[in-house]
Each structure stands twice: as structure tokens, then as C-alpha cells.
Amino acid sequence: MNYFEKMRGSGPSPPGVGAGEVFWSWLGSFLGISAVALLHAGLFEPRDLSLLIGSFGASAVLLYGAVRSPLAQPRNLMGGHVLSALIGVTAHQLLGSTPWLAAAVAVSLAIAIMHLTRTLHPPGGATALIAVIGGDSVHQLGYLYVLVPAALGALVMLVIALLVNNIPKTRKYPEFWF
């Protein structure tokens, strides 16, 4: 198969989902994101939701909308965010004077480490990137960014996923822990 033929794809789009699946995905993501935001409002400045990093939106899609995906499992969620946050903070501290380089190193190294540790979670790439480009409020956290927001926010979303995703008989979460 030549290079350009590969870009045509090999099959039809995936099938749609029923109303029940849409409802449980909506409910889980609403509760998960709300819980992280409310926790932040209770612990920190209520108007500055820095605990609610953008990568959690993508995690919500996986945790509540693609519950059976290997990328949505607890090991991947927690490991992906924590390792990527650690890498992102380190990249910023070592290379922050050259932001484009720090950003590229953070994301690419996060992907490599997630592969090597079997914790691939695509939102982890954004968690690493946010550590580099997140601005003064994120940079002032230093390595605390690994714990709050990355680990704590992911843990809150995991607890909500465990509770909500096991209510309907058609869902089971997690598929695996380790």
C-alpha cells in the first residue's frame, strides 16, 4: 500500500450510540467536572478555576463517553496526568526561557513516558503542555502542579467515574486497574 492510499481509511465510521448512553455520558461528565470545580472553589479562589485544567475536559470524554477504552482506565488516567504534569513542570523549569522548545519537549516526552509505562492517556499531553504555557498562576505552583491540580483533579474524576459508570447495567468501569 503506498503512502497516500493509507490516508483513505479502511472502513466506515463507528456506529452511533443510544439515548441511554448519551445520558450517562452527560451525567458523568457533568458531575465529574462539577466536582473538580466545586472542590477548587472550596479550597482556592472561587473565581479562578486553575484546578480545572483544560485537559480534564478531554479526560471527561474518555471516562464518561468511552468507558471501555484502554485509554480511559484508572491506571491510564492517573498515570497519564501525574507523569505528564511532572514532565511538564520539569520542562518549564529547565527550558522555560525558550517556551516553544519547552512545550515541544514536554508533550513529546510525556507521550514517550506514557508509552513506556503503559499509561497512555491523550489528555496527559495537554497536562504537560499546560505546565509550560499555563501562565504565572500555574508556574507559581511548581511541582505542586503535579498534586494539585493534576493528581487531585484526576482522582476526583475517577471516583465519579466509578460511581456513575456502574449504575446502568450496560456499563462496567473499570475494565482493568493495573
- Strand-and-helix sequence, N→C? HHHHHHH
The residue ranges in which pLDDT falls below 50 over 5 or more consecutive positions are none
Q: How much of the polypeptide forms β-strand, as a percent range? A: under 5%
Mean pLDDT: 94
**How does the overall form come out from the CA principal axes?**
globular
Would you report the number of β strands? 0
The biggest sheet, with number of strands, parallel, antiparallel or mixed sense and barrel status, is:
none
State the secondary-structure class.
mainly alpha
Determine the number of helices (DSSP H or I, runs of at least 4 residues): 7
What's the end-to-end separation, in Å?
A: 37 Å
**Percentage of residues assigned to helices:** 55-70%
Radius of gyration: 17 Å
Number of domains: 1
Question: Can you offer a commentary on this structure?
Answer:
It contains seven helices and no strands. It is globular. With 178 residues, the protein is mainly α. Helix 1 (19-43) packs antiparallel against helix 2, helix 1 (19-43) runs antiparallel to helix 7 and helix 3 runs antiparallel to helix 7 (144-164). The model has no long low-confidence stretch (mean pLDDT 94).
Layout of SSEs?
Blueprint: H1 19-43, H2 55-65, H3 74-95, H4 99-116, H5 123-133, H6 136-139, H7 144-164
Q: Gist?
A:
The chain is mostly helical and about 180 residues long.
Supply database-style keywords.
about 180 residues, globular, mainly alpha, about 65% helix, 7 helices, single chain
